[in-house]
Structures are given as structure tokens and as C-alpha cells.
Write a structure and sequence with these properties.
ten-stranded parallel beta sheet; about 25% strand; 2 domains; UDP N-Acetylglucosamine Acyltransferase, domain 1; eleven-stranded mixed beta sheet; 1 helix; homotrimer; mainly beta
């Protein structure tokens, strides 16, 4: 297909110095790949992407050298994605269009960041996390594995804006934060917890808790939730959902037993 | 004017196979037009746009063929708009900069989507709808005619995130949803209703109702609203506003009578 | 560094008529500079930017001439910034990636607009204002000096959407509006005031007031706030923060005394 031949580097792409490109990599038209970028095998970079965007120091320091950017194999970056220098992305990383991810960030394996996502840098994210469109992940956020963050959620980091000092949000494995919620600085969201839509979370959320409202208060645990439309249990979600997860097709329990046995 | 000569196709644009381009179409620089796109007469495509962006199946299926994308005549797409394959846009469609609209979507005639709008696909939108900047329209949304959606509104679709099953929001003719409101999955907003700013709408909203707050509750009907600054009636808005509407210059009532008589 | 050599104009950039480019200006690849743009000395324009984007009149009026756009010296526009024709930016202006700023806007000196910021035009902004990512500044907003606006804040302007008439928000010097807050049309936020996260501000906010909630109510003044983590005073912020401010290194009080004496 025009402008996007799989496995080819479009001749209009600009490729900097010391760029390592794996086997069968696709780079779309009008991309800019700055110095010291490494792209794993079979990765697809859509048109108009910028990889290794220089940090502010570039404009101030004549001896600036671009920090390395590493993108794992089998990744897919949609058109217009901008990744700054100095971050690391594990295999199977996926972005929607026009995602921005700043420096000093580490994503694990098989993570997804939806359209317009704005990851502010200096963050750590585990494996198999799914961020829907237009999330804002403030600096110093620390996010576990299998975490879901829905559109327009903001993780903040300044308890006394703009004075600081900054303190990040921490979110544990399997938690889900629904659309348009704001998590205040330093809040810890426990594993499997669920934050309802449009909440303002000012206090720590215990594991498996469900919190809603502005300000958010706990209304129960995930075991109290009757799924719509039929009233069946739907949480913990990992026992009822497997698309794109490592337990796809076998179920979480079977996968977890295999994992504990060292087989997965 | 440089880089944007009306009625011309910039030589830097990449044009795929089986692309139908109408009379007097403008295509700006660095655009990518993938296979099977149809562009109606007198339409203007700004620089850096991508039309017919392939769906995920492209990366997985060697026999993939891009679904057709059709853009009606007299449309205007601002710079950086991305429209996926497999959608249909009626005449007079307008986008602000960097709009994204995914596959399987149908917009009627004379709709507008403002800067950074994120239409997630599998949606249906009627005629003369106006979406301001940065709206997020979840999959399976169904929107009538003459609907207004203001900045940062999110229409959701998953009652048990991330488990599903997805159920879309439905909004009837002439309704307006003010900025930063979230509409929960499956909610039905009746015709001429008004959702106030920063509301969380969990229940259906009757026709002509006004709802506000988090969670939203009904505080009256649109007939109770005294317009600012002078206390005059301003709703239903169609009787007090006509810019860009088919009743511009003649008023809603006269137009509606003509329409009923089969004249408009 | 590839594609972005400081002090050079990339040959792929399109430069219109009557464009004035100062000394040591950098223009990145694939930029479009329309007619009647003026760029001050030492300014850096990243790749894929569009300067002087024509207003809607361009498409309707054959005699259209692009209104001048002026960008002050020592500015830095990140990749994908779009500035419409007919605005003025003072020296040291900075944008994050993919900022959009429409026509008829005036920014003073040393202002910053973060990633994805959407400034709707017909606004006035003073000096040393900092807008974080993804703010939405509605038309007719009037913002003083040293104002902080955090992510996903929306300044509205239509008291009777979509009927109007529009009336802008006014924010005085040193005020700060925290993330995801909505300010309703015509509201005046006094100097040094603090609007908490996720607030809906319907009424004027007095100088030095702290307001929180949906709807917002006053919970005290900035002098009541004990900073985290140590309980020390942190407001007014100008006495506790100086990065990027004209009092950097000397403190606000000393700078202000010098300023009053005509020395700063």
C-alpha cells in the first residue's frame, strides 16, 4: 500500500547517526529519526513520526549528545507518534496516532498507548498496560503490570502547584482507572482497584476497592459489582477478559498456574 | 498561497491506487492518500493529512485490502487530519487540525469536528452536528441531527471496563452536551436536552431536560433557563441561533414549515 | 543533529511570500510557513510546524490576504506546532509538540504552552504565563501575568451554548488553575487565587481565595495552605518558586523592589 510498504524504509525518512534498525522494519514517509535510536525487528513506524526528539538540553548545551532511545521488536507506532530521546520500550509496544512520550521513561512489554496520549517522562510502566486515548501521565508516575487507564485520565505530581516538590502517583497491578478521573500527587492505587469515571482521587485506594465521585469515596469492593447487562460477576477483570493478554484462550487461572510453575 | 494552492494537488502528496479525486480538489503538501479513497468536488485537504489510514488488519493479514473511504464534496479538512479507511462523510464536512476518525463511521451532511477531535469508529452521526475541540466519541455512539458537543466531552461505551460488552451512547436531535461532561455507557439523551458543564451522566436524560453535576441530576427543563445576560429565553436553541444551520437567515420555524411542506 | 541543524533552514521547508526570518533562525523539515510571517532572531521551529495557517476567510474570499503573524526572538516551537495567521507572540515563547493557536491572539514575553495546547483565538495573555499540556483557552479569554494553567483545564465562553453571546474568562496575575477544572463564561479569577483540581467554577473567585469542588466553593485563602510534605507555607507561590521567572536566583521580593525602583 502506498507510502507504507511493510518492511521498507520510505526514502523521504530522515535517519540520523548511530541509528540501529532491525530486520524487516517499516519506516513511513516524512519520519525523522534522530541520533542514537534503536528499532527492533519487525517494528512498523507510521508516517510523520519523530523518534529521538531531543530534550531541552539540546538547545542550551553545545556538547549535547542525544540519549539513546530503544524500541523493542514487533512494535507498531501509528502516524505522528513522537518519542523523545532517552526512553526504553519493550517488545510489542503499540501507539495510536500522535502519541507523545518524553524522556526518561521505561515501558515494559506489550503496552499500548492510545491516540493523543501524553506521557510526560520520568515514568515507569510495567508489562501489558493499556492506556486508552488522551491520557496524561505526569512525571514520576509508577505503574505496575496489566493496568488500564481510560481516556482523559490525569495522573498529577505537584501537591503545591507550581512549587513542588513533585511526587508521583503509584498504581499497582490489575487496577483500572475510568475516564476523566484525576489522581492527586502521591496517591497509591492498590492492585485490582477500580476508580470510577470522573472521580477526583485524593486519598490512597486499597486493593480491590471501588471508589467514585468528586472527591472520591469508597463504595465497596470489586466483588460487589454486578456486571451489566446480566448481573454476573465481572471483576477481577482478569478472570473475565483475555483479549491481548498472555492468558488469551486459556484463561487467567490456568495461565497463572503455568506461570507459577515456571512454564509461562 | 504557498503550499496550499486552491484547486491544486501538491506534488509532495502521495496518492495510492484507486483514488477518485473530484473537480477542483485541493490536496496540501505531505499528505498521504491510501488506496480506495474518494474525494468529492471542491474539497480542500490541508497539509500533513492522512486519508484511508489502514486498520489493524493491515498488519496481520497479507490479503488485506483497504476499505473504501468517501469524503463528500465541499468539505474542508484542516492540517493533520487523519481519517481511517472504511468511513463515509457527507457533503460539507469540516475538521479542525489533527482530528482523528477511525473506521466504520458514518457522518451525515454539514458536520464539523473541531481541533484534536477523536472519533473512535463504528459510530453514526446525523446531519449538521457540531463537535467542538477535543471531543472523544466512543465506539458504537449514535448521534442524531443538529447535536452540539463541547470540548473534552467523552461518550463512553464499556459498562464494566475493560470487560465489556460495549454499549454505545445515544443522543437525539438538537441536544447539547457542555464541556468536560462524561456520558456513561448506554445512556440515552433525549431531544433538545441540555447537559451542563463537567457533569457525570449515569441515567437517561429526558427530552428537553437540563441536568447538571457529578452525578448529574435534573434541575428543570430548557424552558426554565433565562439566558444571560438579559434573561430572555434562549432554548430551544434552534429558535435563537442560525449560523451555519439550514435555517440561517429565515429562522427555524419558517424553515421547518417549508421542510414539512417538502420545500426545504 | 539530523533534520534539525541549529541555525539552518531545512531545504524541505516551504516558505511563503513576505516572510521575514531573523538571524540564526532554525526551521525544521517539512514546515509550512505561509505568507506574512515574521520570525525573530535565534528562534527554533521544529519539524512539521505550520506558521500562518490561513483563517476560514481564505476559503471564501478570493481577495484574502494572510494577516501577519509575528513570533518574537529566542522562541522555541516544538514539532507540529500550528500557529494561525494574525497573532503576536513576544520573545522567548515556547510550545510543546502539536500546539494549536488560532488567530487574533496576543501572548506577551516568556510564555509557555505545553503539548497539545489548544488556544482558540481572540485571546490576550500577559508575560511569563505557563500553560501545561492540553489546556483549552476559549475565545475572548483575558489572562494576566505569571498565571499557571494546568492540564485539561477549559476556559469557556458561551453562557447559553450554542446561542451566545460569548463572554470570556478573566484571570489575574499570579493565579493558578489546577488540572481538569472548568471555568464558566465571564468568571473573574482574582490575583494569587488557587483553583483546585477537577473544579467547576461558576462564580467569581476573590484574590488569594482557594476554591475546590463541583460546583466550586471557597475553602479558605492561600495563606491557610500548609505545603506538603512538611507543612511550610508555599503560597503565594512567587515567594517559593523561581525557575524560569525573572526573579530566578534573587527571589521575588528583591526582584519586585528592583522593579519598583525601575531597575528590573
Amino acid at each position: 500500500m502506498l507510502g507504507f510498504e511493510l518492511g521498507k524504509i520510505d526514502p523521504s525518512a530522515r535517519i540520523g547517526r548511530n541509528v540501529e534498525i532491525g530486520q524487516s522494519v517499516t519506516i513511513g514517509c516524512d519520519c525523522v529519526i534522530y541520533d542514537n535510536v534503536r528499532i527492533g525487528d519487525n517494528t512498523v513506524i507510521g508516517p510523520h513520526c519523530i523518534l529521538g526528539e531531543p530534550t531541552m538540553a539540546f538547545y542550551r548545551d553545545a556538547s549535547y549528545d542525544n540519549a539513546p532511545l530503544s524500541i523493542g521488536p514487533n512494535s507498531l507506532l501509528r502516524a505522528g507518534t513522537v518519542l523523545y530521546a532517552g526512553s526504553v520500550f519493550g517488545e510489542g509496544f503499540q501507539t495510536g496516532g500522535r502519541v507523545s512520550i518524553r524522556e526518561g521513561t521505561k515501558f515494559g512489554r506489550h503496552c499500548r498507548v492510545g491516540t493523543l496520549g501524553d506521557i510526560q517522562g520520568l515514568c515507569e510502566v510495567g508489562d501489558y498496560c493499556s492506556f486508552h486515548s488522551n491520557v496524561h501521565i505526569g512525571q514520576l508516575s509508577s505503574i505496575g503490570n496489566f493496568v488500564w487507564i481510560f481516556p482523559y485520565v490525569v495522573l498529577t505530581n505537584d501537591p503545591n502547584p507550581p512549587v513542588g516538590p513533585m511526587v508521583g502517583v503509584r498504581i499497582d497491578d490489575f487496577a483500572a482507572v475510568a475516564t476523566m478521573s484525576v489522581i492527586l500527587p502521591g496517591v497509591h492505587i492498590g492492585s485490582d482497584a477500580l476508580v470510577g469515571a470522573h472521580a477526583l482521587v485524593r486519598k490512597d485506594v486499597p486493593a480491590e476497592a471501588v471508589v467514585v465521585g468528586n472527591p472520591a469515596r469508597q463504595i465497596g469492593t470489586i466483588h460487589d459489582i454486578k456486571g451489566r447487562p446480566d448481573g454476573q460477576a465481572v471483576y477481577p477483570w482478569r478472570e473475565h477478559f483475555d483479549r491481548g493478554m498472555p492468558w488469551e484462550g486459556i484463561g487467567y487461572q490456568a495461565w497463572n498456574e503455568r506461570r507459577r510453575a515456571g512454564l509461562a
